[in-house]
Structures are given as C-alpha cells and as structure tokens.
Design goal:
single chain, alpha+beta, Adenine-n6-DNA-methyltransferase TaqI, Chain A, domain 2, Helix Hairpins, 3 domains, 5-stranded mixed β-sheet, 4-stranded antiparallel β-sheet, 37% helix
C-alpha cells in the first residue's frame, strides 16, 4: 500500500515561543543550537517544533547535496521560519518507521524536487509524493529491526572512529618526541628554557622564530575573488581543513586567482618551502595551523594568512614537523586572545622558540617520521574506508527494508 505525503502529514501552523531553545538539523537529527549566537528578537520570529514532529530543511538543495535534511525531533525547540514542520495525521502510522522511510526519501528523491536558483521546496512539492505504508504492526516490526541493525552498524562505526582517534594520538606523540628529543634515547639532555618544549638533547640549540623567518601577508581578497582557473591560492580555511602540513598544487585541488595578481601582489606569491599560517581560528586548539608549499608551482597565499619565509636555507620539512608538534603549537595557543575567533599575529609567531639539531640529524628525524607517519596514515585511511562501507551498507539496508525489497525481518 502507498500513501501520499499530504494524507500522512499536515504542515504545522507556525507558532512562536522564544523561551524554548533554538535548534537546527545536523546529520539527520534535531539538535540544540548555541542560544548566545541567536538574538532574542530573532528567536521571537522562530517557529516551534515539538518532540514527535518532523522537521525539514527545504533550502538550497542544489548547493549542498550531502547534508541530511529531514529529521524526527526528539526535543522541543524553535527553528528558523525557513524550515517546514510536519505533524503526523494518521494514527495507524509509526513515527519511527516513517523516520527511516523519510531518511531514504531525503537521500534518494527529495533533492530532485523544488525550483529556483537556490533550489527550494515547499510542502506542496512534497504533498503528492507517494510513500510505501504497510500495516502498522509491520511498520513496528520494520522499525524494531532497523533500530537493532543500525545500532550494531553504528557501534562498529564508533569503534573504528575510536581507533582513528588513537592512531592520530600515536602520530602526534611520535612527532612531539622526535622533534624535541631526537631519536637516540641515551643522548645527554639539557633544559631548553622553554616551558612548552622541556628538555632537549644537549647538543641542540633553541632559536627564536623572528631570527629564522621574514614575514609577508597573503592576498587581501575574499571568496568572491576565487575562480577555477588561474594561479593556485591557498587560504586559511584550506589550511584548517584540508592541506595542513604541506600543500602540493599539482596534487591538491586548490582554487585559483586571476593572473593579474602576479603583477599587483608579488609579495603574496609563495616560493617553494614557504610556510603559510592561518591568521585566525575558531578555537584555541586550531591556533598555529599552517601548511608549507612543497612545490615549485607559482602559488599565492590567500586571505587570512601569514607567510613565513626562511632568512637562510633551512630544512623545511623538519621545520614543518616541528610546527606540527605541541611544543610549538602550545606556545601559540598560550598567546592567542579572542572569544569566538582567535587571532594569530606576526608578533605571536616571532616570540615562539624552535628546536634545531644539526642538518644531518634533522634529515634522519624527517626520514623516520615520514616512514612512521605514512604507516599510520595508511591505517587511518583503511579505517575511514571501512566506515564509509558501513555507512553505505546502513543506507542500503534501510532502503531495502522500508521499500519492501527485503520481505522478512526478525
């Protein structure tokens, strides 16, 4: 049996209650938002969604093809007027079953609806869509079966995510130890004089950042200046999310800027081995994030970036590992200031200290770390592949069961 959405649900009339917390859809669930970021006057215009009602984000379907846009609310919140709130009309329907069914409808079909430049749908676009609706007892059996199976899958995903976290922790420990203590556990040690670095091998030196690097600023541009072709450009967002540690334009998918910047902004053009620091971060943990250009391809530093260029020849890859260590990042984190956004300035970078063994030892440390980090990253990649396969299986299982492709569930 199939039923039209308009006979299953009604669109809820908008009501306000600014005393409720604000909410939104995230990863297929209705969650609380930070009320401090929502002015009370704005909340007064929000609409109520209660526990047991369905929430749909109908906006910009063509701009975001991955986000889940339908959720069964388990909390009472207020949400933006742009959302659609659905109330169940039929008493012989299971909300849990419908939440699974609408999940598949969301993934496979909903993004084909709507119109306009910012592809948007209304309840009328959904109203005449058919959904399979078996008898209620069968709906309950399906929901119970999927609850059990998806819980097993989610547990397996969680275990893999924990393993990834442990591998990342192991990687960080390796870097921290190698760039501050070296590879020989029996070497004599001395105090570095820097709280965040601790003891270092007696034959190493500690230098201030300001004596090793000159500084420049990235391009004073916005996202609107970026394009598909031209000169590759690395911006602060990519440093935080994609290309931390190193960037290789021939390998990495960088957005570009017009070639005219070669004439107008030559000081923002990077040289091979230059370091690019993000000059802002949304949390203290990310303060000090950087990348270095491991390529001879002409590349610009983009918006919200600081360029650090070595005054004299250095082994850039060793320095990149040191900048990845907590010994360096904790120096930056202890100096940044901010509330919602934290600023990283030239002055903060200049006052940090760097550990420097002799060049030959730097090369041995880099060779060791490259090998070990590669092994760890390979294991992380395998776990991520496993997670993706589990998630794909989860979606195909829900699809097969709620659409009747699998007839028997126990």
């Amino acid at each position: 049996m199939k039923e039209k959405i308009k006979f299953l649900f009604s669109e809820k009339k908008k009501e306000s209650n600014p005393n409720l917390r604000s909410g939104a859809i995230s990863f297929g669930k209705v969650i609380y938002k930070d009320d401090e970021k929502v002015p009370f006057e704005t909340k007064k215009s929000y609409q109520v969604v209660n526990k047991g009602e369905f929430l749909i984000n109908p906006l910009n379907l063509n701009y975001d093809l991955k986000s889940l846009r339908i959720a069964l609310s388990e909390i009472d919140v207020v949400v933006s007027q742009g959302y659609i709130v659905l109330q169940l009309k039929k008493e012989d329907a299971s909300r849990i079953y419908l939440s699974y069914l609408l999940h598949i409808f969301d993934i496979l079909f909903m993004k084909s609806l709507g119109a306009g430049v910012r592809q948007t749908i209304s309840f009328n676009d959904l109203a005449n869509c058919f959904l399979p609706l078996p008898p209620k007892q069968e709906q309950i059996q399906i929901a119970d079966y999927l609850d059990k199976k998806t819980a097993q899958i989610d547990k397996a995903v969680t275990l893999k995510e924990r393993l990834i976290a442990l591998l990342k922790e192991q990687r960080q420990i390796l870097i921290n130890r190698a760039v501050t203590q070296g590879l020989d556990p029996n070497v004599p040690m001395k105090e570095s004089g820097v709280e965040w670095i601790g003891k270092i091998p007696a034959h190493w030196e500690v230098r201030k950042f300001r004596f090793l690097f000159d500084f420049a600023k990235g391009l004073n541009i916005t996202k609107e200046n970026l394009q598909k072709e031209g000169i590759p450009c690395v911006n602060y967002g990519e440093i935080h999310s994609k290309y931390g540690f190193e960037v290789i334009p021939e390998r990495d998918s960088l957005k570009c800027v017009d070639t005219s910047y070669l004439k107008t902004n030559p000081k923002s053009l990077l040289k091979s081995g230059d370091f690019v620091f993000a000059d802002t971060s949304e949390d203290v943990e990310a303060a000090g994030s950087f990348t270095y250009l491991n390529s001879d391809t002409p590349t610009f530093a983009g918006y919200h970036t600081i360029i650090a260029r070595a005054k004299t020849p250095i082994f850039n890859r060793f320095m990149a590992y040191f900048f990845s260590s907590d010994a360096f990042k904790d120096q930056v984190r202890s100096s940044v200031r901010g509330v919602k956004v934290y600023s990283i300035t030239n002055a903060i970078l200049k006052d940090t200290r760097v550990c420097l063994p002799q060049r030959e030892e730097q090369e041995k440390i880099v060779e060791f770390l490259d090998r070990k980090i590669s092994d760890i990253d390979r294991l992380i990649a395998l776990q991520k592949q496993g997670i993706e396969k589990l998630k794909e299986y989860r979606e195909s299982l829900i699809d097969a069961v709620v659409t009747g492709k699998v007839k028997k569930v126990k």
